[in-house]
Amino acid sequence: MSDRSKKPTERKLPLLSIPPNVIIGALIVFIVFVAGGGIYDLVNHPQAVDQNPKTGANSAVAFYGEQTLTESIFSMIVLAITFGGLYLASRSMQVAYNRSNANLQLGVGIAFIIIGLGLSYYLIYVRNVING
Hints:
Layout: H1 2-5, H2 20-35, H3 38-44, E1 50-51, E2 58-59, H4 69-92, H5 99-131
Antiparallel strand pairs: 1-2
């Protein structure tokens, strides 16, 4: 009789526990993929190099309203460098026990951010030069 009076224990299904760092990393990879034009690449299958119909010259940067695969991959790499710099800079603010390590991470993070922004500007500049 005492067995029936006990409340049955609920069985919980083992949930897949994913660490927050993995979730954040996957989210950043997805953002870089989308912002770099990955969906456009999957849908339209652009060429790696585009040819100017007037001059016949090949270019890794596409012309008006187009995007090449090379430009898309370059854009994704630049975005990854910039996000890496932001990650290092934010990580340096969490280090309280080693000031020299924190300063090094902050310096490298700021350098990556500057490099990423500079390469983004260069990509925009090249597009403007090619498109006239």
